[in-house]
From TrEMBL:
Pfam families per record: Acetyltransf_1
Protein name, per record: N-acetyltransferase domain-containing protein
GO molecular function: histone acetyltransferase activity
Source superkingdom: Eukaryota
InterPro entries reported in the protein's UniProt record: Acyl_CoA_acyltransferase, GNAT_dom
SUPFAM superfamilies, sorted: Acyl-CoA N-acyltransferases (Nat)
Source organism (scientific name): Graphocephala atropunctata
PANTHER family for this protein: CYSTEINE AND GLYCINE-RICH PROTEIN 2 BINDING PROTEIN, CYSTEINE-RICH PROTEIN 2-BINDING PROTEIN
Classification of source organism: Eukaryota, Metazoa, Ecdysozoa, Arthropoda, Hexapoda
Annotated N-acetyltransferase domain residues: 83-225
């Protein structure tokens, strides 16, 4: 059984994960605790935003399945927490910048998105950022642009990216929504296709200006559009 072999090979590390319940991924930064959760009004559209977009206590991504299995083999009960979708806050910035540097390329700073948090989504699991998405609402008078959608490995294939995309689309009704996606990212291309995004252009070497010269990642991109 592959899971049993994984547990055996990594028992020391996995026991630490279970005991702390916070060390979910080595790429992550533990978020500071919130003492108050209350609605707030944005300066961009003057919308009043709730402290939570969605609290999901039912979805069990692969990482949580693994932790639960490890606990059961140790005859312990894993205390599962809900997956919480929120708007971007200052407390998220450092963690997201680190994830961007690790999983995209160095030098990304998402601080500017704090100016319009109503067009953002950050996914937390027990004070760990496991996903995020950002939309720039005014690229042109008729277009908005999704700059990032990301789910941490181990938390994928659980509908998290799908909900983030759904949320971002609904924050910007009345405009076309555009984005770039790596030509090799077939799972993302399929997701966008399911939401009726259509390819407009294939751009060779689009990511050359972002990626380090030593990167082996695909440098070509599709430019997609969702027409309203």
């Amino acid at each position: 059984h592959k899971l049993a072999l994984t547990c055996k090979k990594n028992s020391a590390h996995l026991k630490q994960v279970v005991v702390t319940d916070e060390n979910v991924d080595e790429d992550c930064i533990l978020l500071e605790k919130l003492t108050i959760n209350c609605p707030f009004t944005t300066s961009y559209t003057f919308r009043t935003l709730k402290p939570f977009i969605l609290i999901d206590g039912k979805t069990v991504p692969p990482r949580l399945e693994l932790l639960s299995e490890i606990c059961s083999r140790q005859h312990r009960r894993y205390k599962r927490h809900p997956i919480v979708y929120k708007y971007l806050q200052k407390r998220h910035v450092r963690a997201i910048n680190k994830l961007c540097s690790t999983h995209f390329w160095p030098g990304i700073d998402i601080s500017e998105a704090l100016e319009f948090p109503e067009f953002s989504v950050v996914v937390e699991y027990h004070r760990i950022v496991i996903g995020f998405g950002f939309l720039v609402p005014d690229v042109t008078h008729s277009d908005a642009y999704i700059s990032f959608i990301f789910t941490l490995p181990g938390w994928r294939r659980a509908g998290i990216a799908r909900y983030m995309l759904y949320h971002l689309i609904n924050t910007c009704r009345g405009k076309d929504i555009t984005l770039h996606v790596s030509a090799s990212n077939t799972s993302a291309l399929l997701l966008y296709q399911q939401f009726a995004f259509k390819p407009e252009e294939f751009i060779q070497n689009f990511y050359d200006k972002f990626m380090p010269p030593t990167s082996t990642e695909c440098r070509h991109a599709f430019f997609l559009r969702l027409c309203k």
